[in-house]
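User: Could you check the structure of this?
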Amino acid sequence: MGKTLFDKIWDGHVVTSRPGHPDAVYINTHFIHEVTSPQAFDGLRKRNIPVFRPNKTRATADHNVPTVDQHLPIKEALSRHQVEMLTKNTAEFGVELYGLGHRYQGIVHVIGPELGITLPGMTIVCGDSHTSTHGAFGAIAFGIGTSEVEQVLATQCILQYKPKRMKIEITGQLKKGVLSKDIILYIIAKISASGATGYFVEYAGEAIRSLSMEARMTICNMSIEMGARGGLIAPDHVTFDYIKGREFAPQGAAWDQALDYWKTLYTDVDAEFDKVLVFKAEDIEPQVTYGTNPGMGMGVTEHIPGLSDIEDGERPSFTKSLEYMGLEAGSQLLGKKVDYVFIGSCTNSRIEDLRLVADFVKGKKKSDDVTVWIVPGSKQVEAQAIEEGIDKVFEAAGFQLRQPGCSACLAMNEDKIPAGKYCISTSNRNFEGRQGPNARTFLASPLTAAAAAITGIVSDVREMI
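Assistant: Sure, the predicted structure tokens are below.
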């Protein structure tokens, strides 16, 4: 019997395997940042052991960094301390750091791909749930906890039970105004925020193959939001063209050798999955969430479910979610006033996202009572946006282009949405307080977010294209 893509990569990285026990899996690349690494380094220090293979670990500062005046000391004491500890720890243990001011600094899941560090066939981990982003390259990538960060630093291996395999196929072609963010929000709404628990998901189908690499990263990024261990997409010519020539990508004879291997990374025709789901691209319209988990989403023209549509056991949490959001069951979000628009995060802060938004808003002005933050995912994205004149388009529209970082995706830095305010966000989570205490979040695509920035309300971008 043939193997799935996941099986091929996993089995090729297993160091030891015993029935009833987790596999010891070798890790090709370990990304770290300032939030989940300090305790791991302390553990090494207490045991008086080094980082086993420091050249396999890359560090950057992203979660706690400010996105304005990065040349000045960080104002928040905890954020400043965590970034300082990352600098201290990486220097002591010989790990390369792309800290504030470095030309490669940025969100960990943006810089890996754009630098050519992320490659097909790899195993990749990071103390961050959205490590699944790197699966877009045909890699097994997943988030780990702080104790596991220490484990990988010490051994370059990790103990993991092999997950089940799921295939999600998207057939057909996407309609006008529908982006990859809409695909993944649609899937999560259909199967729920726990619908892929215990699985590693492979995305396939005509609609997936038609996507750019940056769009594929958006889909894999949010695999974790439906409970999956991770997501991946088989590499193809789109993948290879994206990687070629990047800073740390193989070159010359090494490129040819790598390419020969990468071309073997696909699911065999006779391979079997534990579960298969199929959706039609033409059924997907621009999506927006209404609740407090990413599974509480719908098409932008649809109505929030009524209480009668919700199972009895889920009604209390459903009602609580709507109370937090200040919304009513059965109502529409279309036309709902928004206060903030955030375009950024490891989900949608790449140059393609910024280009899409700039093309849409060129010649338009934002609504007077909406604050718009555009936060590039890295220094390289920021530099490219400036080189292409995208910054001028945003300035003319009244949008603020800030400096790289996780920003308003999460309330760990200075970019917080005020209590009670509504933010339409291109990030990945809409939990209570995720963007600030009592902040209210609608998740959407960059185009849907940009449309709200112009109109001041939740809008159907298809009517504006």
